[in-house]
Amino acid sequence: MALFLNEPHDRVVEWKGALAQQAYLWQQGKWVAGQLPAAEGQLVLLAEQLDKHALMTSLQVLDDAGVQAELYRVAAVAGRELASLRLSAWSPELKAALQQVSDSWDMACVPALPQGDDPGLVLMDMDSTAIQIECIDEIAALAGVGEEVAAVTRAAMEGALPFSESLRRRVAALSGADAGIIDEVIGRMPLMPGLTELVAGLKAMGWKVAIASGGFVPFARHLQQQLGLDAVFANTLEMADGKLTGKVLGDIVDADAKARILEELAQQHGIPLSQTVAIGDGANDLKMLARAGLGVALHAKPLVQEQAPVCLNRLSLEGVLGLLQAR
């Protein structure tokens, strides 16, 4: 047991050898060999380098709440480190308390996690989630209406404007812009850190990966071809004579549509919703995050931070892969 009495900032991943042989319970301020008879919750701590301070700080919160914890796995996934604990109880209040002390690490405190060894589905937003930009803002900047459109984008992502209304207003501002701008933006579209690692890891696990975006089809299809995504859903900009008309064709991919797409894809592939993950950053992603087995907000807006089941603020998309391999 001396392994758990090291200096406070020892890296938790160094305990991997001991945990391969035995799980440990935290009881009355010390570790004892054993397992919880039943678990009502799951806690995962994640960081670039996860130290004992993160674990002990979290355990103090559990102690204060009267919750027992079983530490059963530490691992390095996609270059990041994690610790997995089974909990004797779970509540929104416990999650909030753990979130409050997570000052240099990310964490997920949920009733249950999807099982990475079973078939599953990840559905993610595109702009500011799969990629680092808002494509419509980039188009608008090149068209000379950048500030006007960016202000509406911010309002929509923060939940101050209905998404469909905001999209029509932003697209209308692009009327008459050269359609060639789209290819120009695609040519310099930066991927979100961790995206390629996440997609590669999901494919190795046999999972389906798709995008549901309030952005536009050309960008989503480019990502689909680049990464081998299973499906993409996005909005269609109307064009005529090489110009944008300022209109969107067909139904808009809004919050309701994203949640519906998640359900339809899961049904199509015979995947239970408990084995689905949704990832997004804006208010129009909240319904999708709530409907999924695991909803993850990535570097999200304040409203989304408050409501999302899990928030990743320090790691990026590679953190999602860690969550799926935490069990």
From TrEMBL:
Q: In which pathway does it act?
A: Amino-acid biosynthesis; L-serine biosynthesis; L-serine from 3-phospho-D-glycerate: step 3/3
Ranges that cross the membrane: none
* Cofactor section: Mg(2+)
User: In Gene Ontology terms, what is one molecular function of this protein?
Assistant: magnesium ion binding
Catalytic residues?
D125 (nucleophile), D127 (proton donor)
The reaction(s) catalysed by this protein are: O-phospho-L-serine + H2O = L-serine + phosphate; O-phospho-D-serine + H2O = D-serine + phosphate
Task: Look up the record and give one Gene Ontology term from the biological process aspect.
Answer: L-serine biosynthetic process
Q: Which residues form a coiled coil?
A: none
Q: Which UniProt keywords apply?
A: Amino-acid biosynthesis, Hydrolase, Magnesium, Metal-binding, Serine biosynthesis
The cross-references to Pfam families, in alphabetical order and at most eight, read:
Hydrolase
Q: Which GO terms describe its cellular component?
A: cytoplasm
Q: Which domain of life is it from?
A: Bacteria
What EC number is given for this enzyme? 3.1.3.3
Instruction: Report the family membership.
Output: Belongs to the HAD-like hydrolase superfamily. SerB family.
The protein depicted here goes by the name: Phosphoserine phosphatase
Q: Which gene encodes it?
A: serB
